[in-house]
Amino acid sequence: MTTAVFVEPEGLASIIGSFLDDVVVLFAATDDSDLDAGVLHVLGALGTDALEQDRCAATLAWTAGQDGSPGTDDDVPADWQDPRFSLGPTDMELAVAGYQARLQDLFPAVR
To answer: Domain for residue 95, yes or no?
Structure first.
């Protein structure tokens, strides 16, 4: 997340971001995506520098909706405009400086 931009909490965003320099987040489109229609369903994962999923971390079902199950009626697809996408708000749990942290109301995007 070395290129991530944190805007809140004001005044602390850059400090929070500095703890996440070594965090790698992977994104994968699921089969129910319809890119021609601008609909992208995304699973995510924490990864390694070698771009492999950390098998000890949970898969992030970002567009799965409240029930956490992809492919159901409450899914909230990401916005796809080739080659960019954005999704959210979503939450993400990760280890920061030896502590478990929950990032809330994230709007992940590839721009």
So the answer is: yes
